[in-house]
Amino acid sequence: MNVGFLGLGVMGTPMALNLCRKFPTIVWNRTAYKSAELVRAGAKLGQTPAKVVEESDIVFTMMFDGPAIRSVMDEDFRNALRGKTLINTSSVSVDFSQGMAKEVHEAGGKFIEMPVSGSRVPAEMGNLVGMMAGDKTECERIRPFVEPITSAAIYCGPIGAGLKMKYAVNTFLIAITVGLAESMNLARAQGLDMEAFSSVLDAGPLASPYSKLKLAKVAKADWSPQAAVKDCYNSTELIRTAAAAAEAKTPLIQICNSLYGQAMDSGLGDEDMIAIYRVLSEQQADHSAKPDEV
């Protein structure tokens, strides 16, 4: 069985690397130079997305958003889908996913929705959590092909259920990221020793591998993305839309959306999602620089 992979960004590259260690893999990325690491690891470079589908039995997509996926689904791509299974791991809207499933089925292929929870480090370790949706029998059939990239792949229901699960999980992730950044900013603004702050947090019940990872990145001013600000902002937009459709109150996400929007406006889109700390700390610096009003 040959595996195809479309989209070699921060998440796609380590996912594809883990797959090519177990299966013959053909990859494609819009900017071809990002394929070099995969080719060195033994993957084959596909000339076009349609060629990847033609030469594969199962194809994964990990692209930025719906329009990015739509841009590769030309007539040649659709014609190549017959008898193939397309697994979308990208974060898109439920409406887009349902439309994509319909289009794949009409082309004679099978479609599985499997957004993933986790950032670059879990992706490198093959420890992402997959949220599978679609035909349950097909989900079980392709399970061996998601094992190299996941520590768990949980069936969530029909198409749309995997994405809805991702929105709910990401609501927690984004809220704790902003909460951690705000906590660090308050500690800094009060003049506390930041190493002591990290030690206190690490010693208590709120510590987690995630908090330790993000504390270390801020301490080193390392803003290289494990999950980028632009991805986080996109996620808040999807969550807001989903919450409105479900008539669910999400006041924290409204605030997080505003803050990540400010981060985007500040040119931080390609930095790690914890770079929201920079937005908070720079706002504090701007406020402190202003003369007192009488």
TrEMBL record:
Keywords: NAD, Oxidoreductase. Residues 2-157 form the 6-phosphogluconate dehydrogenase NADP-binding domain. PROSITE patterns: 3_HYDROXYISOBUT_DH. The active site is at residue 166. Transmembrane segments: none annotated. Residues 160-280 form the 3-hydroxyisobutyrate dehydrogenase-like NAD-binding domain. Belongs to the HIBADH-related family. NP60 subfamily. PANTHER family: CYTOKINE-LIKE NUCLEAR FACTOR N-PAC, OXIDOREDUCTASE GLYR1-RELATED. This is NAD(P)-binding protein. It comes from Trichoderma longibrachiatum ATCC 18648.
